[in-house]
Amino acid sequence: MSQQYTNKLHAGSEFPKLPVTLPTGQTATLGQPRLGFDWQLILVYRGKHCPLCTKYLNQLESHIANLTAINVDVIAVSGDSQTQLAEHQLQLGVQFDIAYGLTLAQMKELGLYISDPRSEQETDHPFAEPGLFVVNADGNIQVIDISNNPFVRPELTALVNGLTWIRNPENNYPVRGMHR
What we know:
alpha/beta, 9 strands, Glutaredoxin, globular
């Protein structure tokens, strides 16, 4: 069995600014919240072939108002093509930005686990397993969760409640996991 290594991003480190493409053809930048926001939640999902991703994205939509209230922008992205995203959007009821075309190099830069499709019916390209990053106003990783399968993801209510608590200046909550 061969050893495989991945570079993992670390809590508190600078999040790389990565361009991604929205369905409109406009470019968005992972790690750079939209105007009016100072934090960004970046959700990397497997793609339209994953029913658990569809469910998770739809569940995230119900938390957008609470995230907006604490000034957290939301963007989701996968390695799907523009056509695959357009087809997937028919199953999604979300208003937040979803981008497509995350490259293998970008997946590796984010330290994501990458899988090959089990068959052509699943999808036609290697894809990232789930990853969630919350980037703070300094451009650093405040929260990071990387999984090697679709079954393990942060519970969204707990995540949003935690971010609400972290964003409250009275709590003075630092980035956790900084011991090296």
